[in-house]
Amino acid sequence: MKKFTNARIYRGQNGPSEILVEKGKIKQIGTNLPDTDEVVDLKGRLVVPPYVDAHLHLDYVFTGSGDEATNTSGTLFEGIARWHDVKKSQTKEDARERALKGIREEVSKGVQFIRTHVDVDDPDLTGLKAMLELREELADNVTIQIVAFPQEGMYAYKGGDEMVEEALKMGADCVGSIPHFEWAREIGEKSIHRTVELATKYDKLIDVHCDETDDVMSRFVELLNALVMSEGIGTRTAASHTCSFGSADNAYAFRMMGLFEKSGMNFISLPTENAYLQGRQDSYPKRRGLTRVKEFFDSGINVCFGQDSINDPWYPVGNGNLMNILDNGIHLAQTMSFEDLDRVLDLITYNGAKTLNVDDQYGIEEGKPANFLVLDADSPFEAVRTRADVLASIRNGEYLFKRPEPSFDIELDLFRKTR
Questions:
Q1: Residues taking part in catalysis
Q2: Using alpha carbons only, what angle is made at residue 208 by residues 282 and 99, rounded to the nearest 5 degrees?
Q3: DSSP for 338-354?
Q4: β-sheet bridge partners, residue 267
């Protein structure tokens, strides 16, 4: 057994606690717990569950630097056109190595759960085969969910719906679609119907790239919500992006939020990428590109954040640091009251786990896997204010990594004379 002492547990008691770990699981949480052979003093640091990146494209990472990937307009639709050319030269080995590099970046910053959308508009399903292998090989260290995602459309790309179904048969975890990219509203609606049909047929989760546009008349989220509510699978469904909902009028938005509460559907917002991509045709004022994060968060509609892209045709930067994503997101969503700041870590932890439907294996609770992070802060407020670094990531009671205590070669002294 192993005991972690002086831990300030997020959502836990106010004072320091101890965490007793046995055979990779949390056996007990409290104070004055039994002695063990190994005791780790966390020195009053904040302990949080692992970060959850609820939306990432691992088969795209590090493809954004070549000439063929240059997105001169900075729009979503040109990014898709550039990816169409880039993926022609992708090999399984190339996809695997780039994805592994992206996963390493994310895990090194505290992520232990990743949902990745993999483009299946590819007759060879190249990226999917690489991601299926990595999901199994890395399962001890990171949990990966795979979305069968038709980047160029279920129907705009000939046979796209068939490729999605084949991907599900091969082992993808979720059904994806992109209705706003189809060539007409009716075809986009058809793709939503097909998404729900496949999810029920194969007992899969759903994650739709939904209304990632500034067009306020893009309202596929309404149909998606209605269908999954009818099937009773709202909690197994996520609507990613929903940027147009951030531009919708209040009469429509508040009616829909009541229906979202009823269905239990999850929402994923991508703060940095959508702030970069959206509003490109706006002069001023420019839209922020986010869905109604604040309203969802305040009303209890489950919403979380994700990285989305790491150096691909849509977004030139990104590094898997979800604390950076959180910082950008809460600024853009204006979710920064003192009360908010004590709980916004949910947006990259618990809310993401709920979206991925992994609640049974997630959280700092007795009986659950001993998966948690040690942050360089002593409270949620300080963690968010300082964008606290992850000092250690523990998985099944063992270190994935541990960093040394922050230190200076020459410590700052404001009164030291420099000349």
A1: 212
A2: 95
A3: HHHHTTGGGGGTHHHHH
A4: 239, 303
